[in-house]
Amino acid sequence: MWTQLDFAGEIVIRLIRWMACLTLAIMAALTFIDVLGRYLLNKPVFGAAEMIQFLLAGTVFAGLVLVSRQDGHVAVELISPRIEERLPVIHRIIVNFASSVGLFLIFFEMLRLTEHAFKLERVSIVLEWHYGFVLVPATVLSLL
Q: Taking a C-beta distance cutoff of 8 angstroms, is the pair 66, 17 a contact?
């Protein structure tokens, strides 16, 4: 039986999945248009590299949520299968603990960078987009 919290969590995951797909599709389309404009018309898309960098951050952090939710962590194939075979419960505890610590470190670093960007009013070089507004979604996604 699904509770309201499970249902809300599933909606959030679906939104994040769509966000990851959308940012990746926009990034691919923007790259394609930029390359065509650059080589065929000699008119690249202004600020395309910066836009792609920001879209890449969105894709990575949305993907991080999805991979973590499905326990799709990176494993060292020389060690992990042997430990999992002999001590499955301890293996699961170690993997979940290490993943949680890593994600919390990413979150706190993102929080620090976001605070720093707002405090110094940092903007991107070409498009002059405020870094803080780009870092906030990435920080929130790193916490999920």
A: yes
Sign of torsion over alpha carbons 75, 76, 81, 82: negative
Determine the Cα–Cα distance for residues 106 and 110; give it in Å rounded to an integer. 6
Element holding 19 (H helix, E strand): helix 4-40
106-129: b or e for each residue (b if 16 or more CB lie within 10 Å)?
bbeebbebbeebeeeeeeeeeeeb
Domain span at 58: 4-143
Contact 124, 55 (CB under 8 A): no
pLDDT digits (tens, 9 = 90+) for 53-67: 999 988 988 888 888
Q: What are phi and psi of 123, to 5 degrees?
A: -125, 160
Rounded CA gap, 45 and 138, in Å? Answer: 25
DSSP structure class, residue 123: B
Token representation of residue 27? 């990034």
**How many folded domains does the chain comprise?**
1
Calpha distance 5→134 (Å, rounded): 28
74 pLDDT above the threshold of 70: no
Beta-bridge partner residues of 35: none
